[in-house]
Amino acid sequence: MLKRIAIIAFVLLNVGCDQISKDLVRKNVDERAYIELLGDKFILTNVENTGAMLGFGNDFPPMIKTIFLKALPIVVMLILLFRVLQKKQMHLWLIIAFAFVIGGGIGNLIDRVAYDSVTDFFQINLGGVFRTGIFNMADVSVTTGTLLILYLTLRHKQLEF
Question: Does residue 139 have an active-site annotation?
Answer without folding.
Answer: yes
